[in-house]
Amino acid sequence: MFSRLSSLVIDGVAEEPLGAERILDLEGVYVELQAVSPDEAAKLPRHAVEQAVTEAFGFFRYHRMALAEAVLDWSGDQFRLLIYSEFLRRYEDPEWNLKSLLEPVRHALSSVGEERFKALEQSLMSLSTSIAGLTTSPSAKGAGDL
């Protein structure tokens, strides 16, 4: 039961944020933001999600990349995140070999205490606040002050 639960937790806790961050990296968002506005780029540090996951769980880089890319799909001319049911189908498909590839992650999560999940959640909430600040237009920021 717990191994099934830990595989479900992988998706909700680490894979989606890592996948979203991987899209930003693959599509050059960090590089563009740095070129256009270095001050704003500092609010969205490259690999911030990876860093938070590493601090919480200690996964190796390639395990983090496997998690991130397990939820990515190339659709048309862009990447998109898989929805949960798509990820489960991919996870169960022997052709993808995700059960074996993600076994070190499942094993690591089986021994992680709740405090580490809470620490990751805190880090991701802080990053989310930074992203919201970057993506809110200046006129919308002032609208609440009226």
Description:
The chain is mainly alpha-helical and 146 residues long. It has one domain (2-131). The protein is built from ten helices and two strands. It has helices spanning 2-26, 29-36, 38-41, 48-57, 61-70, 84-92, 98-101, 103-110, 114-135, 138-143; strands at residues 72-75, 78-81. A two-stranded antiparallel ribbon has the order 1-2. A hairpin with a 2-residue loop joins strand 1 and strand 2. Helix 1 (2-26) runs antiparallel to helix 4, helix 1 crosses helix 5 (61-70) and helix 4 packs antiparallel against helix 9 (114-135). 21% of the residues are buried.
Spatial order of the strands in the main sheet? 1-2
Number of strands: 2
Whole-number mean pLDDT: 80
Helix fraction bin: over 70%
Q: What is the general shape?
A: globular
Major sheet description:
2 strands, antiparallel
Distance from N terminus to C terminus (CA atoms, Å) equals: 53 Å
Unreliable runs, pLDDT <50, ≥5 residues? 1-11
Structural class: mainly alpha
The value of Rg in angstroms is: 17 Å
Strand content: 5-15%
Concise summary:
The chain has 146 residues and is mostly helical.
Question: Would you spell out the secondary-structure blueprint of this structure?
Answer:
Layout: H1 2-26, H2 29-36, H3 38-41, H4 48-57, H5 61-70, E1 72-75, E2 78-81, H6 84-92, H7 98-101, H8 103-110, H9 114-135, H10 138-143
Antiparallel strand pairs: 1-2
Helix pairs in contact: 1-4, 1-5, 1-8, 4-9
Keywords for this entry:
mainly alpha, two-stranded antiparallel sheet, disordered N terminus, 10 helices, globular, 146 residues, 73% helix
